[in-house]
Amino acid sequence: MAPDDGAPVRGPIAWMIGACARHPGLTLLLVAASAAWGVWSVQHVPLDAIPDLSDVQVIVYTEWPGRSAQLIEDQITYPISSKLLAAPGVRAVRGQSFFGLSFVYAIFDDGTDIYWARSRVLEYMSGVQGQLPSGVVPVIGPDATGVGLVFEYALVDRSGTLDLAQLRSLQDWNLRYALASIPGVAEVASLGGWVRQYQIQLDPARLAALEVSTTQVIEAVRASNEDSGGRVLELASHEYVVRGRGYVKDIDDLRKIALRAGEGASVTVGDLGVVTLGPDMRRGIAELDGQGEVVGGIVVMRYGQDALAVIDAVKQRLEELKAGLPAGVEVVPTYDRSELIRRATSTLRRALLEELAIVSLVIFVFLLHARSALIPILTIPVGVVLAFVPMFYQGITANIMSLGGIAVAIGAMVDASIILVENVHKRLEDWEHAGQPSPRRDVVVAAMQEVGPSVFFALLVITVSFLPIFTLHETAGRLFKPLAFTKTYAMGFAALLSVTLTPALAALAIRGHIRGEMQNPVSRVLIRLYTPVVRWVVRRR
Predict the structure, then answer these.
(1) DSSP state of 450
(2) Residue 115, C-beta contacts closer than 8 angstroms, at least 6 positions apart
(3) What is the per-residue pLDDT for 515?
(4) What span, in angstroms and rounded, lies between the C-alpha atoms of 307 and 149?
(5) CA–CA distance, 429 with 436 (Å, rounded to integer)
(6) Residues contacting residue 17 through CB under 8 Å, at least 6 positions apart
(7) What is the average per-residue pLDDT within 129-156?
C-alpha cells in the first residue's frame, strides 16, 4: 500500500520526485522556461562542419625585402623566436625564414585564450624591436585559426575590357575593404593578378654621364613624395593655411623630380631613365577552370565565430556590391563551406529525428498506453535542447562531432523515464486488484519513489562513462571532447528530467484503466520466449 502524504520520504531524490508529482503545474512551468532557454541556445550556437583542431597560436610576420634566407634567420627569426620562448603559456616556438620573409609561430598551451596570447606576444615584441635591423617592423597575423578559411571567390571579366592589373586594383581597393568590415571577418587576402606600381628604369650610361648615383635617385624620390606642414598666415583679416604639397599623383610628377639644380641645366628623374606603370613581382597565380588567370579573394573568419553566419553575411555583401562592379565583371564563388555545414547538420538532424521516431514507436508498442508513452518521449526533445545551453556558453560549435554526441545519448536518455512509468503501471495494476485502498496519486508517487533514486544514479553512471575522453590532449582532445561534452550534457539533463518532468507528467497523464503486463500481446510473446531460457539457466546452476 502506498504511503500517505504524511509518511516520511527517504532521500533527497525521493523527496524531489514527490514534490514535482504533487506540484505538476509549477514543475512544468520551470521546465518550459528552461526549454525556452534551450531553444534560444539552439538558435544562437555557432555552426560549423567540423571542430577546430588547430593549436592556439600567434603568427609573427616580418618582411625585409631583398635579404637572403640566412640573413633573415640570423637577424630576424632567431631574435624573435628566442624572445618568445620566455612568454608565459608558450608550449613551442617555430620559425621559418625565406628570401625577404620571416614567419615565427608561437604555440600556446591548450585552453589559452587567443586574445590573451596575442597580448603577451605584443608585449614581448616591444622588447625585441631594438634588436632588429633598422626599418624592420614585425606584425602579428590575423586572429584566426587553421579552419578560418571559409569562403573564396574569383573576379572574372566576361567582357575582356579589364586586364589583370585593373581587376587586382578592384579587389584591393573596393571588394577587400567592403568584406573586411563584416563582423566576424578577420582578413580578406588577395590572390592572383598584378599589383600596380610606379617603376623607374634607370639608364647606367646616363647616371655615369650626369654623375648621379642610384642612392641619390632613391633619396630624391622619397623626399619628393610627401607633404610638408606650414602655418596659418593672416592677411586682410583672412587666414590662409600655408603648406607644401608634394604627393606623387601620376607618372609626370615622378619624371619632374629634380636631383640637381643650379648653374647649367637641371637634372630630373626623367633625364635618367624611363618612368612607367608596371606590375610588381609576384610568386604565384590564380587560375579558374582552365580558362585563364583571374584575381581571387580569400575570406578568413575570426576565431570562435559562427562560420555559417559569416559566410551568409559575405554572400549578402557581395550581392550588394554587384551593382557597383564594372560591366562584365562577375564574382564567382570558388569555395563555400556553408554547403558542407548545412549538409553535415542536416544529416545529423535527420538521424536525430529518426532515432526519436524509432524510440517513440518502441515505447508505445511496449506500453500500449498513449499518455504513458508520451512521458518518456517528451524527455528526449527537452533534454536535447537543454544540452545546447552549456554548449552555447562553453563556446562549442554545433558540428558533426558535437551533434554526434547527442545522437549517441538519445537511446539511453529515456531509460529512467521508462522504468518509472513501468513501475507505476505495475503498482497501479496491484492497486486495482486490491480494491483501490488508497488515493491514486499516492500510489503513483510511491511507485516512482521506489525506483526513482536507483535509476537516477544509474543514469548518472552512464553520464560519466565518457570521462576518459576528457583526459585526451592536443588534436585528439579537440576532436573528441565536443562529442563527450554533448553526450554528458544530454545524459545529465535526462537524469534530472527523470526525477522532475517525468513525475509531474505521470501525475497528470497516467489515468484510467492500466493494462497489465500479460494483457500486452508483445509482452506475452516475449515472456513465453525468455521464460524457458531463464529456467534452463537456473537449472544449470
Answers:
(1) H
(2) 143
(3) 59
(4) 9
(5) 10
(6) 445, 448, 449, 452, 499, 503
(7) 89
CB 84 within 8 A of CB 124: yes
Rounded Cα distance, 90 and 85, in Å: 7
∠ Cα 266 267 270 (to 5°): 130
Distance CA 242, CA 239 (A): 10
Classify residue 337 by burial, with Cβ atoms within 10 Å: 0-12, 13-18, 19+. buried
Q: Say whether 534 sits in a helix, a strand or coil.
A: helix
Q: pLDDT tens-digit profile of 388-432?
A: 999 999 888 888 888 888 888 877 888 888 888 888 878 877 777
CB 424 within 8 A of CB 432: no
pLDDT band for 4, please (50, 70, 90 cuts).
very low
| pLDDT confidence bin for 262, thresholds 50/70/90 | low
Looking at residue 37, its amino acid is W
Distance of CA 398 to the CA centre of its chain: 9
pLDDT on residue 3 = 44
| Nine cell digits for residue 519 | 494483457
Write the DSSP string, 347-414: HHHHHHHHHHHHHHHHHHHHH--HHHHHHHHHHHHHHHHHHHHHHHHHT--B-HHHHHHHHHHHHHHT
pLDDT above 70: residue 20: yes
Other beta carbons within 10 angstroms of residue 369's beta carbon come to: 21
- Beta pairing partners, 413: none
Distance between alpha carbon 466 and the CA centroid of its chain, in Å? 24
By C-alpha distance, which of 184, 129, 123, 114 is closest to 151? 184
| Closest by CA position to 152, among listed 12, 5, 344, 335 | 335
pTM higher than 0.90 for the full model?
Answer: no
* Residue 248 backbone zone (phi > 0: left; psi -120 to 50: alpha; other: beta): beta
How many DSSP H helices and E strands does the chain contain? 19, 14
Please check whether residue 360 is in contact with residue 370, taking contact to mean a CB–CB distance below 8 angstroms.
no
Residues 483 and 402 sit within 8 Å (Cβ to Cβ) = yes
Model confidence pLDDT, tens digit, residues 71-104? 999 999 999 999 999 899 999 999 999 998 999 9
Q: What is the pLDDT of residue 502?
A: 87
Spatial separation of the C-alpha atoms in residues 519 and 244, rounded to whole Å: 102
Cell 609561430, located at residue: 105
The backbone torsions φ and ψ at residue 213, rounded to the nearest 5 degrees and listed phi first, read -95, 165
Residues 348 and 404 sit within 8 Å (Cβ to Cβ): yes
- Cell reading at 305: 565565430
Q: What is the mean pLDDT of the chain?
A: 85
In order of 214, 262, 272, the CA distances from 267 in angstroms are 13, 10, 8
More confident residue, 440 or 113: 113
List b or e across 85-111, with b for residues whose CB sees 16 or more CB atoms inside 10 angstroms.
eebeebeebebebeeebbbbbbbbeee
Checking 160-164 for CB contacts under 8 A at 24+ apart, the result is: 160/328, 161/326, 161/327, 161/328, 162/326, 162/328, 162/329, 163/194, 164/192, 164/193, 164/194, 164/293, 164/294, 164/295
φ/ψ of 274, rounded to 5, equals -110, 130
